[in-house]
Amino acid sequence: MVEPPSLEKLVQEFASLPGIGKKTARRLAYFVLTRPRERAEALSNTIVEACDKVKRCSQCHSFAEEDPCPICKAREGSRSICVVEKFSDILPFENAGIYHGLYFVLGGVLSPLDGVGPETLHIPQLIQRIQTEKIEEVIFALGSSPEADSTILLIDKLLAGVPVKRSSLARGIPMGSELEYIDEVTVLRAFESRTGI
């Protein structure tokens, strides 16, 4: 059976989303087509509305409908800044209520093989913000990949001579995990980051 061209185009659009494979894209397309037309129009209108209203905050590069974003506005004067790779990395901190400082969305991590160099990221704006706002602590929450480590090392080098405390999230074994199923790098980092009892 050959799918109609418009259906195949819809499948391709869904498949272009991150984390969506061809099978899932096809399932989503079929789902949309089996719903009442009003639901499809509501989805379409919601996407267009979000594209029209949601912009990047000029200070932290997170998504917001106003500039500066509500977090930058409410926490103006804070002396700590948490550096994350993408906007969705802010949500766990906010949902847990464990951090009450500023954020900065870097826009990715260094990955020369993917064509992501320092000029692609918001590194100059981060350095400027740290200096002009007299930030006292920079918390790196960029993950645990070699690319993230390279990004942190570059920023640390660019901050040489700037009197700011630098820290990164602890890395270790997730709660409830069995040691035999944990990869060697995670075990090594957990061992190196061990704390006293």
Automatic annotation (TrEMBL):
Record carries keyword Magnesium: no
Gene3D superfamilies per the UniProt record, alphabetical: 3.40.1360.10, 6.10.250.240, RecR Domain 1
Annotated GO MF terms: DNA binding; zinc ion binding
Zinc-finger ranges (C4-type): 57-72
Keywords annotated in UniProt: DNA damage, DNA recombination, DNA repair, Metal-binding, Zinc, Zinc-finger
InterPro entries: DNA_Rcmb_RecR, Rcmb_RecR, Rcmb_RecR_Znf, TOPRIM_dom, TOPRIM_RecR
GO BP: DNA recombination; DNA repair
Signal peptide positions (record): none
Cited Pfam families: RecR_C, RecR_HhH, RecR_ZnF, Toprim_4
All residue ranges annotated as the Toprim domain in the record: 79-174
Family: Belongs to the RecR family.
Record PANTHER family: RECOMBINATION PROTEIN RECR
Functional description taken from the UniProt entry: May play a role in DNA repair. It seems to be involved in an RecBC-independent recombinational process of DNA repair. It may act with RecF and RecO.
Protein name, per record: Recombination protein RecR
Organism: Hallerella succinigenes
Organismal lineage: Bacteria, Pseudomonadati, Fibrobacterota, Fibrobacteria, Fibrobacterales
